[in-house]
Amino acid sequence: MFGALTYADWRPLFRKRAANTFTLREAYGPFFGFLYGWTQTWVAKSASIATLATGFFYYLANFHPELEKVIGAIPIPLGHNGGPLEVRSGQLLAMAVILFLAIVNYFGVKIGGGVQIAVTVIKVGLILVIIVAGVASGQGNTANFTTSIPVAGGFSGFFAALVAALWAYDGWNNVNMVSSEIRNPQRNLPLALIGGVGAVILIYLLTNVAYFYVLSGAEVAASDRVAAAMMRKVIGQGGANAVSIAAMISIFAA
What we know:
By secondary structure, the chain is mostly helical. Helix content is about 70%, strand content about 5%.
């Protein structure tokens, strides 16, 4: 939220320029502006989009296991244990999803924004269903909130937890990148940043309340699909399948 408030304060000053690259160039010189733009293009945004698309493929593989079948290999040492890079049909599907959304956004902010609003409304609605299902299930236990497992403490433990939380909030400043296309940015940009981050804080905390009400700390730590594990415990495999669909919609919106 402090970061959002900072953007809300100074970003409207540069409303004629869209990217942080411009802002950093003005503040610290061309080298840092270039370095930020290069990092975002080749590492940060590319890797985060690829990670989300891979998650979409993994959740879809719950219904179509054949997507995880290896269909070929590229002879470069980037695969498991330094072996060849294996290619699965699900990866090709993930690339197609990225390409499809790139085409949608190519046709303009209005079309891309309309698609995102519609999918986000569905996503938030499904998350609220998960929260209500967990809290109102009657299968939880408030004692779970005091359970714990041994983990690394100190700075290393704090930053490990921070990475996971920041990933959940990733995108909190992305509206800043289209600030030059926002009407009345002095008013609307702060509202979007503060309102968006505030909504994510509320949803994130409520979702974790539902998770830990139904599952113990050890059960949460043992699962790589916590929401599915919670819904499976509440209403069976059908609930886990429903969460997988919700996760795909959430990833698609992101």
